[in-house]
Design brief:
The protein has helices spanning 7-11, 40-50, 66-76, 88-101, 116-123, 169-177, 232-242, 252-263, 265-288, 310-319, 343-357, and strands spanning 27-29, 83-86, 107-110, 128-131, 154-157, 184-187, 208-213, 226-230, 292-294, 300-304, 322-324, 335-339. It is of the alpha/beta class. It folds into two domains: 7-38 and 266-357, Aspartate Aminotransferase, domain 1 (Alpha-Beta Complex), CATH 3.90.1150.10; 40-264, Aspartate Aminotransferase, domain 2 (3-Layer(aba) Sandwich), CATH 3.40.640. The strands form four sheets. Strands 2-8-7-6-5 form a five-stranded mixed sheet, sandwiched between helices. A three-stranded antiparallel sheet has the order 9-10-12. A hairpin with a 5-residue loop joins strand 9 and strand 10 (300-304). Helix 4 crosses helix 5 (116-123) and helix 4 (88-101) packs across helix 7 (232-242). The chain is globular, with a radius of gyration of 21 Å. The structure holds 4'-deoxy-4'-aminopyridoxal-5'-phosphate.
Length: 358
């Protein structure tokens, strides 16, 4: 607190990201990063962008990331004017709150979801109401469509975080089709690990915005590149906010790296398949130790042990330099969110958990 702070800063409740421990070799399963390196083409593209002398860094990057947007549009079979690019999908989401979700009526999102949403809502003074997940931790679209539920927009991840549960595309379409007067934002940060993308719907629904990131399936969390896909009018709104905020959100290396990542669809397929196989293997091992595990379509699992306190388990793992995520929040404070690492990392985790729950 300081007398120099604005009112809004006094009221903010900042998001707290997962710990980035300063250890040589932590088993880091707490922030849903990819355990594999990005495509070798990414490294090549960064080297090419730098050249011998780094000469290109003298110049500002392309403010509209034309080449990157073209590559991403081609990958998804859409037009470049349907693509917005930002500095990580967090920035894209923030712009969406300000540009598309801030209206008179409250927006809706699940009670258990990405905890950055309420933070953005407070930052941009967007009214919101939370809709409880079902007892199985699933989203019931009907809960968002009740005539007496005011709706200035809806946002949730698919698959949801931190639960990992995915809704089928038909359910997303039912929601979007029934909400023509407001924007539905589907945050598909984890879509490549097992859900159907709603990008297939953007030509038909001008109120649908789909958000993607290169941080998870493309192993580029350190580069900060995210996207929104939707009707050009929605993309225009995001660009108006962007150009009132930061003309150059993506540096040259990030643009080169992300373009190369999108040009290597094979790498994405191979590494995602490995993560999915490890997820199923880890799920089986956790079930064998007595954990209850929410079926996951993401690169993490959400698990609870009926006989052991989740915070205590996380603390004991931490002593062994194994990091998982615990949320001290209603309904989920007995769960742990465990990112999928390599099989070797998952094995280290399972061995440690064996000793803890024995
Ligand atoms: N959406 C969800 C649901 C997430 O879990 C995350 C990762 N914390 C993000 C968006 C943001 O990802 P990034 O800013 O790295 O693109």
């Amino acid at each position: 607190m300081s007398r120099y702070w604005s009112d809004i800063v006094n009221r903010l409740v900042p998001y707290v990201p997962g710990e980035q421990p300063a250890l040589a070799k932590p088993v880091k399963l707490n922030t849903n990063e990819n355990p594999y390196a990005p495509s070798p083409r990414v490294l090549e593209a960064i080297r090419h962008e730098l050249g011998e002398t780094g000469e290109s860094l003298r110049r500002y990057p392309d403010p509209v990331a034309k080449r990157l947007r073209a590559a991403v549009a081609a990958h998804h079979g859409i037009r470049a004017e349907q693509v917005f690019v930002g500095n990580g999908s967090d920035e894209v989401l923030a712009h969406a709150f300000q540009a598309l979700l801030k209206h008179d009526k409250s927006i809706l999102f699940p009670d258990i979801t990405y905890s950055f949403y309420p933070t953005y809502a407070r930052l941009y003074e967007v009214e919101y109401r939370t809709v409880p997940l079902t007892s199985e931790f699933t989203i019931n679209v009907d809960d968002y469509l009740q005539p007496n539920v005011s709706n200035g927009g809806v946002i949730f991840p698919n698959p949801n975080a931190p639960t990992g549960h995915a809704l089928p595309l038909a359910e997303i379409e039912r929601l979007v089709a029934a909400s023509p007067d407001s924007v539905v934002v589907i945050d598909e940060a984890y879509v490549d690990f097992g859900a159907e993308s709603a990008i297939a719907l953007i030509d038909r629904y001008p109120n649908l915005l789909v958000v993607h990131t290169t941080s998870k399936s493309r192993s580029l969390a350190g580069m900060r590149v995210g996207f929104a896909f939707g009707h050009p009018d929605l993309i225009d709104a995001l660009n108006r906010v962007k150009d009132s905020f930061n003309s150059y959100p993506l540096d040259r290396l990030a643009q080169a790296a992300a373009t190369a990542a999108y040009e290597d669809a094979e790498w994405l397929k191979t590494t995602s398949a490995r993560v999915i196989a490890s997820r199923e293997r880890l799920t089986a091992a956790l079930l064998a130790l007595g954990f209850e595990v929410v079926p996951s379509a993401a690169n993490f699992v959400f698990a609870k042990h009926p006989a052991h306190d989740a915070a205590a388990i996380a603390a004991k793992l931490r002593e062994k330099e194994i990091f998982v995520r615990h949320f001290n929040a209603p309904r989920v404070n007995q769960h742990l969110r465990i990112s999928i690492g390599t099989d070797a990392e998952c094995d280290t985790l399972v061995e440690a958990l064996k000793a803890i729950v024995a």
